[in-house]
# Entry
Amino acid sequence: MDDLVNALLNGSRRAVARLLTWVSDESPQASPILTALFPHTGKAWVIGITGAPGTGKSSLVNCLAKAYRAQNLLVGIIAVDPTSPFTGGAILGDRIRMRDLSGDSGVFIRSMATRGSLGGLARTTRDAIRVLDAAGFDIILVETVGAGQSEVDIVRTAHTTLVIEAPGLGDEVQAIKAGILEIADVLVVNKADRPGAHKTVSALRMMLDIGHPASRTQMTAHHGQLLEVKTPETPHSDEPIWIPPVLETIATDEKGVAELVSAIQKHREFIQSQGLSAPLERQRIEIELHERLREALIQQLLESTSPEYVMDVINQVQNRQLDPQSAVTKILANHKQMVS
Amino acid sequence: MKKNIRILIAKPGLDGHDRGAKVIARALRDAGFEVIYTGLRQTPEMIAEAALQEDVDVVGLSILSGAHMALVPKIREVMDSHELGDVPIILGGIIPDEDKPALEAMGVRGIFGPGTNTEVIVSKIHAMMGDASA
Ligand SMILES: Nc1nc2c(ncn2[C@@H]2O[C@H](COP(=O)(O)OP(=O)(O)OP(=O)(O)O)[C@@H](O)[C@H]2O)c(=O)[nH]1
Ligand SMILES: [Mg+2]
# Structure
């Protein structure tokens, strides 16, 4: 184990690759290593890239990685694609748009399947980020599935979240629906070579003008509330707010990339200069612990409860002898009895 | 917990058709594999690099150009130099019988002609992985 940890801390790509596999498989071998690596994490800046399918996320990741490499920064990339709920298989195709990065040992690209997780990332993506962080990557780009509606995982994981839009039918409405204003630190209208790009930009700007929600950073500063990602509130007028800029890019021509990099840098500086890094990290930790605790508790509960018992309770609910909430109370009481 | 089998499907060489490779990629996904698909015109270096970063269990090559006797040894060599000597290669394409022994000697573990039933490919991969469910 120490060998692998040392190899990883010394930047061995084979070690990074193997550990990412163990992490994604939730293999028992992974946890002592993650424990050993944890003190070495917390240095990378994690950038989330989300947005509807086909808007150009992977193409932009390719551009951003090149830009950061030009600054001599090491770039780790995690690209998440969905696992088929029917077969458990997945096609991970984001690398197709990242071929410019091949042959550069300062870049490491890893594809991940969601494996049943619904929030846009895999359950193990956070730990995968830590592996890359400990291995010394300065910038970690995380491309989400891009399902649109429930991309909440990424804001709970990334330091800066980019939401990618593309011009096209119904964007304005879609944007409101998906609540992207709440999750975006930077809004990008990619495919600006296509008709309608300016319209999309002005629609987004207008929405920001009308109803910009109190930023997440504000919310954290005031409450640090568990599991709340958005709480539109009247911000105190004396506190600076981050208003997400709206940028146009053409990923296929690498247009607008310098501006995007500088917008990300401004966001990073805003977070750091306002003393928000620590409270935001606290919030992420709180959310992660909460999630892990919930899973561990359910696991424990199911281990101490026989499947027959659960089946029986399900039958009682189906027969209308027991309502669902009483069923839960009953299972919990049974669990307490079993473990005492 | 069952380990997820990860396969790289790559299309080396200069010919511009990846329909066959895509069909295989989908069939393998439907069989429950995680398929890393990298697209057309992959150099041996790109294939080895992707196999390493993605820590795949198998590398599947689709070669329809007839250049397999030039491409496969080169890819095997670059993979070996990336410490990927233990990662098996399987090959899809139009491969004349007389080439097969040489390819197998290079460590190609499965050769599948056009129109091979995907179930054959799937069970071959399971067998290679030592999976009892095959
Ligand atoms: N015209 C135009 N096409 C683009 C641009 N950026 C990306 N594309 C094309 O849009 C398609 C999708 O790009 P991707 O980068 O794969 O998009 P994605 O959001 O990663 O897609 P998924 O991961 O499948 O959700 C590709 O064919 C790209 O070449 C752009 O700025 N202009
Ligand atoms: Mg993509």
